[in-house]
Amino acid sequence: MHRIFGDILLREQTFEQISVVVQGPVQNYQGRTHHEEGITQRCLESIRTHLPGAKIILSTWPDQDLSGLVYDQLVISQDPGTNSVAELPQFPKNYNRQLVSTQAGLAQVTTPYAIKLRSDNFIIGNEFVGIQQNYPKSESEQKVFTEKVVINSNLFRRTSHGRTVLMSPSDFFYFGTTEDLKKIWQQPLIEDQPIAEEMSKAMNSASTTSCTLEAEQFYCQIWLKALNPSTKVMQHRFDYTKKDIIAWERFLASNIIIADPETMGLGLRKISKRKLKRANEFSHIDWLKLYKKYCDCSITIAKDYQQWSLEIRRAFKLPLSNLSSRFKHK
User: Fold this and answer.
1) Who has greater pLDDT, 228 or 255?
2) I need a labelling partner for 74 at 20 to 30 A (CA). Which of 53, 108, 148, 234 fits?
3) What is the dihedral of CA 19, 23, 27, 32, to 10 degrees?
4) Whole-model pTM?
5) How many domains in the chain?
6) Mind telling me which InterPro entries this protein's record contains (predicted)?
């Protein structure tokens, strides 16, 4: 059924079965000054251009200037502000904001498929629709979603300071079934989070020389723990074993598709762009190698100059970064 749906979308270029939740502020405010002028208008217009027929749900905060913005449905939520839980000072300060605006938008979705898109990004194509349907195989014991969820590779960390990191996906773009996106984003606020105390204790017990968790690792651990209560709670950025690395790779291969922005149809804000891909990020080919290893050994991975260049840079840069980090955190 879903394979047929994907074929129809690509052939007829009709996207009525997709809703796009554009979440976040539409302008700068105190403490947040990197929102590009007009970026949300560009975001909304890009959806009309590249996803004709898709429903646009703008989920934002009160007192935002909405002039010139075109959408199908507006959702206004009370801004929870930065996290102010005194006993959890190490938690990412905008965790509640990310949850509230995303949840409020997804709650209004009635279509089978949805996109979670930050209000400071935009789309430049619709290739992610086909990509989402192209890799259907999974390890049955690893599968937690009804279909794979497409996440962009930009800021989807593979390494940090030259060392492997786990559970650090980007928060820019998610595309999949509405049911699956809700599994990721329908989590309690930080003060109501059932594993908050466990995470706080784990993080506080980490050595002072350890690298703290990335914000994305914090988010990801919460929804992974909700999906699988046996998920390990990490003390710090590199708190894992070889067994944990394999478990994360198998999860990615069976549940996620990591796609490169320029080939999936995602446009990036200026501060996220780089002339060369960051050496610490996943690429689509990195993910394809995991998919081939764990799910479908029959696929062919084409040779790619950009991937070759990326791996050459990694071979030189990552060991130096690792060495520098170990000296710094002695």
Assistant:
1) 255
2) 148
3) -160
4) 0.91
5) 1
6) WavE (IPR011122)
